[in-house]
Amino acid sequence: MNQRPRRNRKTSAVREMVAETHLKKEDLIYPLFIIDGVNKKKSIHSMPNCYRWSLDLLLNEIESCGKLGLSNFVLFPSVENNLKDKKATYSYHPKNFYLKAIKEIKKEFPDFSLMSDVAMDPYSSDGHDGLVIKGEIDNDESIPILCEMALAQANAGIDIIGPSDMMDGRVGAIRETLDENNFINTSIMSYTAKYASAFYGPFRDALNSEPKHGDKKTYQMDPRNRTESLVEAELDEIEGADILMIKPALSYLDVIQTLKKNSNLPISAYNVSGEYAMIHAAAEKGWLDYDNTYLEVLTSIKRAGADIILTYFAKDFAKFKN
Length: 322
Ligand code: PBG
What we know:
Layout: H1 12-18, E1 28-34, E2 41-43, E3 51-53, H2 55-67, E4 72-77, H3 97-108, E5 113-115, E6 131-133, E7 136-138, H4 139-156, E8 160-161, H5 170-180, E9 187-194, H6 201-207, H7 228-239, E10 243-247, H8 253-262, E11 267-271, H9 273-284, H10 290-304, E12 308-311, H11 314-321
Parallel strand pairs: 1-3, 1-4, 1-12, 4-5, 8-9, 9-10, 10-11, 11-12
Antiparallel strand pairs: 2-3, 6-7
Helix pairs in contact: 4-5
The structure holds ligand PBG.
Ligand PBG binds at residues 117, 119, 121, 129, 164, 200, 203-204, 272-273.
């Protein structure tokens, strides 16, 4: 035998030397949930160690994440039902606590990057990402609402707009709205290939944003399709996206690789709530080793081609690396 691949695995030092994939804290974006009020830290049943924070406590949490070496965050609002309506008007209301929080966080931590969520579901009485008219999600009537939401977030000082709604043409419309209002440096990380997935369940628990009727299959992608992700990617590029996202991550590693090979833009992947919950559940039962399992998962997402990973494991990873 001339070739003995095991020689490159013989010691830890050799394995480090030949390792092809290196996961860094800088690659990660940590998702955080916010609720209105003061001194609140509400647990999320299906997402152990994740909380819905009021702003005062959230600022402390961000500070402690910063000390661990994290500097990228994405913020999601959990909104009371009485503030929800068909047109998601609370999403751009001047007194919206989410917009106030963006302003405060950016004031306290100007060097951290903060990403938003643009979609109607956290504010919609229908629980859909777009406007429901006669039982259907109306694409073109949703766009102005999404633009107004994005503009309000830009006004509050957000660094990166994250349209997660999957309406056609929304990236271009948001880009135009931002530019017209002189927010030329506000970035867009588009949820480019977002699939109609069963893995969002725990997140919808956290936000109480489950659709009131029907599902999201007329706007989110069909899990059977990969080539279609190229159509979405091409459109998002033309429309002005700065970063393309694939979501979920673990069941879509092939899609991550496809977009990485076919785009020159940075690629991100969202390691979603259900992917987080299942590792926690198995570890709780003693069936999987927690640290080793999530490390393998995050590494595989990076190996598949993701430059950036949105993950609820970010804080545990940062602690692990310290
Ligand atoms: C909603 C949105 C969802 C997630 C992020 N933004 C859920 C959905 O589309 O129903 C899911 C994130 C996760 O599961 O961690 N626009």
